[in-house]
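Q: Give me a backbone?
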Amino acid sequence: QVQLVESGGGLVQAGGPLRLPCAASGGTFSGHGMGWFRQAPGKEREFVGVIMRSGGTTYYADSVKGRFTISRDNAKNTVFLQMNNLKPEDTAVYYCAARGIITMAIMTSTLAYDYWGQGTQVTVSS
């Protein structure tokens, strides 16, 4: 059983940066691919990006490509979502999620992930 806890959310001005850590416990962190999702009010939860178990491969949604970066520190059991040049449309609750093996065919689906954090609110003001 893997427990995930996101932090680092808050209010930021458009154009600013924010970094979200997600700390994992209770499992073999290095054995899990880690995804980031977000959910805005009234909308479905959507894929933001994913980092594979090795940390060498990442994929991003087109809406955040070039602005967001996912990294992981397997020694500290933590995955990070670095968000730069934030836009008001990035306002959402951000979630991290874990799955043992993630493939490109399933990485964007919320159903593919076994474990979820509670989420952290990010609000971008214009």
Notes: Residues 24 and 111 are 19 Å apart (CA to CA). The two ends are 40 Å apart (CA to CA). The chain has no helices and eleven strands.
